[in-house]
Amino acid sequence: MMEETEQKIGMVGSGSWATAMIKMLGDNQKKKDVFWWIRKEEDLAYIKTYKHNPTYLSAVELRVHPDHLFSDARKVIQQSDIVILNTPSAYLKDALKGVDASDFEGKIIVTAIKGIIPDENLIVGEYLSKIYGIPLANIVVIGGPCHAEEVSAEKLSYLTIAGKESAHAESVASVLRNRYINTIISTDVFGVEYGAVLKNIYALAGGICHGLGFGDNFTAVLVSNAIREMETCVTAIDPEVDRDINASAYLGDLLVTAYSQFSRNRTFGHMIGKGYTVQSAQLEMNMVAEGYYASACIQNIIQHYELDMPICNMVYQILYNKQAANIEVKKLATKLT
């Protein structure tokens, strides 16, 4: 019987979602080495000693080797066969400082980032292809619906793993699935990644409405319109794929992000609806709400393709043009069906 090959997995990121994925990898039975880039030196030292992340999901015990923790992302990438990028989109460039295109050669590059690179107006897969020359065939996207907090509690969850090369997607799925993580394989790389970006904007919209005092009845109508908006957008961007917008990666991820108590985008929106400024909401949360950055980027796409996306337009007007939330939501209410 042939001995199982030991895979080398690198995690670039140390927030809640990266920490939850480290737990997934540790609870997976496949033979592997896991290397982890941790941004803060003090967090790295703490995790080495106590096997817990002191900043995120601090109650979770992490199965990591002390010698496999680094504050240099390049060292993690160079030692890995599968590299999982898992920082907020706005911080990816900083995390990859000093990393060369040659460091990514021959590897499966996974994006677990549900956002757009702000200065580039590109989803992560497109950014990696443009800046580092990584072939699209070597890029895999991880979609939801899945919250880090429920993963940490080992509640049954599902991940969608999308790759143009199904074999690469399956390789990634095989090191993540475990007794509480099921995986769904997809070839819709652009749809899954853009869907993950858009659902954050819609969750933010739902939070704004809730903060203004709108109830569950209105939120249900908002979300049903949002999934149609999402389909309009991803179809314009990548019309060749025959996707089912009601699948878990699209509708499922939208629902959990729009309704869950763990949704930071919904929380951020709720604060805006309550009258917080963008800056004060960001300071109080101390976590990144990807929908904020995504809103400006998606606005450019809406204009480029001349799309009718009133929910995204409403969020943009409130966040970036400082329009009154109550007035913008009332305008939107006349357009929902």
UniProtKB/TrEMBL annotation:
Residues where NAD(+) binds: 148, 264
Glycerol-3-phosphate dehydrogenase NAD-dependent N-terminal domain segment(s): 8-167
Residue ranges constituting the Glycerol-3-phosphate dehydrogenase NAD-dependent C-terminal domain according to the UniProt record: 188-325
Active-site feature positions: 199
Catalytic reaction(s) noted: sn-glycerol 3-phosphate + NADP(+) = dihydroxyacetone phosphate + NADPH + H(+)
Any one GO MF annotation of this record: glycerol-3-phosphate dehydrogenase (NADP+) activity
Alphabetical UniProt keywords: Lipid biosynthesis, Lipid metabolism, NAD, Oxidoreductase, Phospholipid biosynthesis, Phospholipid metabolism
Gene Ontology biological process terms from the UniProt entry: carbohydrate metabolic process; glycerol-3-phosphate catabolic process; phospholipid biosynthetic process
Residues the record lists as binding substrate: 114, 264-265
Signal sequence coordinates: none
Family matches, as InterPro entries: 6-PGluconate_DH-like_C_sf, 6PGD_dom2, G3P_DH_NAD-dep, G3P_DH_NAD-dep_C, G3P_DH_NAD-dep_N, NAD(P)-bd_dom_sf
Keyword Lipid biosynthesis: yes
Primary enzyme class: oxidoreductase
Listed SUPFAM superfamilies: 6-phosphogluconate dehydrogenase C-terminal domain-like (SSF48179), NAD(P)-binding Rossmann-fold domains (SSF51735)
EC code(s) of this entry: 1.1.1.94
One of the record's GO cellular component terms: cytosol
Pfam families membership: NAD_Gly3P_dh_C, NAD_Gly3P_dh_N
UniProt xrefs under PANTHER family: GLYCEROL-3-PHOSPHATE DEHYDROGENASE, GLYCEROL-3-PHOSPHATE DEHYDROGENASE [NAD(+)] 2, CHLOROPLASTIC
Entry similarity comment: Belongs to the NAD-dependent glycerol-3-phosphate dehydrogenase family.
Protein name: Glycerol-3-phosphate dehydrogenase
